[in-house]
Amino acid sequence: MSESEEKRKRAKDFYIPPHSHCKVCGKAIPEGQIYCSKECRDKDLKAQSRERKMLWAFYGVFMALLVILLVVSYILK
């Protein structure tokens, strides 16, 4: 048996069907799914919500600092 035939045989023995991995925990799941369970889905949605809130808080702080800077620069003229 040639080397290439052996490689093909080994590859055939270790066939892994098409799949994807859970976005949260990394567990192998059927292809086309995003989460392995409702718990992982809930965790991800909660994390996305927290990220959105933090982004809006950042925008708010940035805008407040910008307004303060503009007011202070106007007063000091």
* Helix segment tally: 2
Residue windows where pLDDT falls under 50 for at least 5 positions:
none
Order of helices and strands: HEEH
Strand order of the largest sheet: 1-2
Tally of DSSP β-strands: 2
Main beta-sheet annotation: 2 strands, antiparallel
Structure write-up:
The chain has 77 residues and is mainly α. It contains 2 helices and 2 strands. It has one domain (3-75). 64% of the residues lie in helices and 8% in strands. The chain has a two-stranded antiparallel sheet with strand order 1-2. The longest helix has 38 residues, at 38-75. The radius of gyration is 26 Å and the shape is elongated. The model has no long low-confidence stretch (mean pLDDT 90).
Characterize this entry briefly.
With 77 residues, the chain is mainly alpha-helical.
Write the layout of secondary structure elements.
Blueprint lengths: L2 H11 L5 E3 L6 E3 L7 H38 L2
Antiparallel strand pairs: 1-2
List keywords for this structure.
77 residues; mainly alpha; two-stranded antiparallel sheet; 2 helices; 8% strand
